[in-house]
């Protein structure tokens, strides 16, 4: 049996898959910019209109993971000043998004949401991953810890992307569904504003944690 086959079989062992799946689950289910924005979108626009946002987050993250694995991270090694610059530019952009969430016009009824703003599109959500500090932490962590270089690199990277899809997708759907479910109980504009302000505060908190 050649070296590539040996590495591939070793990678498929549950003992090695478990840590990566657990890392992906914990990182995906915990609050962060994506999840707070998905919850707010679910409340303000409903789950059906939030689906492009959901898919954009998942596919954008996977694309980012693959590109980081293919060498995007080497750019920061060569130009280390880019990393803190990106961090603070991203934080400023997230603060703008937090302000928009906090001041989103609350629909009085699900049918009224259509005329009050628009949810994120697929491409907006996908491109957002590149200014999301948590996405950078997750992708660089997955590549550095679970995608070792060598002859089996492509297999490792492909499997990491597959786990990001299968484990991460249900987690972000849960957040969008959580926000959508609250539409049944949060009928008053004041309650919806309170929820939006809470999500905005969580987003700002995640920004602060990313700058530590």
Automatic annotation (TrEMBL):
GO terms for cellular component: plasma membrane. Pfam families: LysE (PF01810). InterPro entries: LeuE-type (IPR001123). Coiled coil: none annotated. It is a multi-pass membrane protein. The keyword Transmembrane helix applies. Keywords: Cell membrane, Membrane, Transmembrane, Transmembrane helix. One of its GO terms (biological process) is cysteine export across plasma membrane. The chain crosses the membrane at residues 55-76, 153-182, 194-211. It is found in: Cell membrane. One of its GO terms (molecular function) is amino acid transmembrane transporter activity. PANTHER family: ARGININE EXPORTER PROTEIN ARGO (PTHR30086), ARGININE EXPORTER PROTEIN ARGO-RELATED (PTHR30086:SF20). This is Lysine exporter protein LysE/YggA. It comes from Hylemonella gracilis ATCC 19624.
């Amino acid at each position: 049996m050649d070296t590539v086959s040996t590495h591939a079989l070793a990678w498929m062992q549950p003992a090695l898959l478990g840590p990566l799946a657990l890392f992906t689950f914990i990182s995906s289910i915990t609050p962060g910019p994506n999840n707070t924005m998905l919850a707010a979108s679910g409340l303000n626009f409903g789950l059906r209109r939030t689906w492009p946002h959901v898919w954009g987050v998942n596919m954008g993250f996977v694309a980012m993971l693959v590109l980081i694995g293919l060498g995007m991270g080497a750019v920061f090694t060569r130009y280390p000043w880019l990393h803190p610059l990106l961090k603070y530019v991203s934080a400023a952009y997230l603060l703008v998004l937090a302000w928009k969430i906090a001041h989103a016009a609350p629909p009085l009824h699900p049918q009224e949401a259509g005329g009050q703003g628009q949810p994120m599109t697929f491409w907006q959500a996908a491109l957002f991953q590149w200014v999301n500090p948590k996405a950078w932490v997750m992708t660089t962590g997955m590549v550095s810890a679970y995608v070792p270089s060598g002859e089996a690199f492509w297999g490792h990277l492909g499997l990491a992307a597959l786990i990001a899809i299968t484990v991460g997708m249900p987690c972000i759907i849960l957040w969008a569904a959580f926000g959508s479910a609250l539409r049944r109980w949060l009928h008053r504009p004041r309650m919806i504003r309170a929820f939006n302000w809470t999500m905005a505060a969580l987003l700002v908190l995640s920004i602060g944690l990313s700058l530590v």
